Amino acid sequence: MSELKTVIHDLASRYFTEIREIRRHLHQHPELSKEEEKTAEFICQTLDRYGIPYRKGVAGFGVIGVIEGNDPGSRCIALRADMDALPVKEENNTSYASQEEGKMHACGHDVHMACLLGAAVILSEAKDLFIGTVKLLFQPSEESYPGGAIGMINEGVLQDPEVELVIGQHVLPTLDAGKVGFNPGPDMASTDEIYLTVTGRGGHAAVPQLVVDPILIAAHIITALQQIVSRHADPNTPTVLSFGRIIGEGRTNIIPNEVRIEGTVRTYDEAWRKEIHRRVEAIATSIAAGMGGSCEVRISHGYPYLHNDEELTAKLHALAADYLGNDHVVNLEPRMTAEDFAYFAQRVPSCLYRLGVRNETRGITSFLHSPTFDVDEQALETGSGLMAWLAINLLN
Question: How high is the pLDDT of residue 371?
Fold first, then answer.
């Protein structure tokens, strides 16, 4: 195994500059969900250059690469990277800053793609050293419901040949570059969007007895819904219910006819998730009716919660420690953010681990989805080499 480790480290180092240029190109040319056409073309061109066969146009602009080792029909695992950017205006002053106005890879998907392409060229160079097949899943539309993962699954990405497990990595700006982190079991929350339309009867604010005030009704609804978490949720089951948008088109002396409320609910338990939906609708509609108005409730079902397979995660943790050293692998806590990688984890044993990209000395500390997010690019060597190392060892 020490000889294999040396081979992977050497290949990751040899291709680092090239992978860094790939990441910079992708960062300069971000595309939003369902618009990743040029990104997909660039990925295909890169796979062509590496001599790796692929299928494009999967679930929109998804790309599936295939690398076959010895006895390719014996086993198959998949490595996944997401492709889409965010509608964020970049504020970094770097040579590789986004050239697309109002679009930015502020969640590190450029790093994910570059690392997977780096792992791909390493695996291609080392294909005589492993048994089985590796699928490379370049997945579109992670940032936009219903997500590209479920689309790729529906189009058979886990079949022909059948995929045994899926591994993904995601940048983490609170973790130093050169380190990775793992969390077995519940890792990321389910996420659903709540849309409430409270209807009353508008009129002059000076004669409240003649109106049915939807703003007052909305205030009561928001306050009451918080009791779902504080009084009905199991304290051992993390739950978040937050409202981030309230629109009531009145004025200082005008009470509007309706108020729109938008929020999110997140948890780790699918049965409790359904119960939250029921309680939101029951509480909102009954309060509105009791105050003389009405409330229309629409809940947009988002991604399920992400469960990292415990056995697989333990194996990956041990392999990462062997490759990087024990002091470069950490244990992480669950988080209430969401990922459509969860759909893969519902089908086969899967693990999404975190790749450190922080460098406080260089001022690279901004968090995800911010206009100043950036990464220590040395993480690309860590990420590409580790993915290849994990894949080879799991197959063998």
Answer: 98
Separation of alpha carbons 140 and 232, rounded Å: 37
Reported as a pLDDT band with limits 50, 70 and 90, residue 337 is very high
Q: What percent of the chain has pLDDT over 90?
A: 99
Clarify whether residues 183 and 246 are in a common domain. Answer: no
The sign one gets for the Cα dihedral 305, 309, 310, 316 is: negative
Query: What average pLDDT is seen over the chain?
Result: 97
Would you state the structure tokens that stand for residue 277, as one six-digit string? Answer: 């939906």
CATH number of the domain that 344 lies in? 3.40.630.10
Show the DSSP H helices in the chain as ranges.
Answer: 2-14, 16-28, 37-50, 109-125, 148-154, 214-225, 227, 270-290, 310-324, 342-347, 379-395
- Active-site residue list: 84, 142
Query: Residue 277: CA atoms inside 13 Å, Cβ hemisphere, count?
Result: 15
pLDDT category at 184 given cuts 50, 70, 90 is very high
Q: Is the pLDDT of residue 89 over 80?
A: yes
Angle at 145 between CA 313 and CA 172, to 5 degrees: 40
Distance CA 15, CA 388 (A): 13
The pLDDT value given to residue 2: 81
Tally of structural domains, the chain? 2
291-328 pLDDT per residue, tens: 999 999 999 999 999 999 999 999 999 999 999 999 99
Contact 260, 215 (CB under 8 A): no
CA distance 379 to 372: 18
Per-residue pLDDT at 1 exceeds 80: no
User: Do 294 and 369 belong together in one domain?
Assistant: no
b or e along 103-132 (b: 16 or more beta carbons within 10 Å of the residue's beta carbon)? bbbbbbbbbbbbbbbbbbbbbbbbbebbeb
SS3 10: helix
241 & 145 share domain: no
From 281, 301, 321, give the residue that closes a domain.
Answer: 301
Q: What is the dihedral of CA 25, 381, 111, 338, to 10 degrees?
A: 180
Question: 295 and 330, same structural domain?
Answer: no
Is the same domain home to 176 and 216? Answer: no
- Give the domain range for residue 290: 192-301
Q: Which of 279, 301, 323 is the last residue of a domain?
A: 301
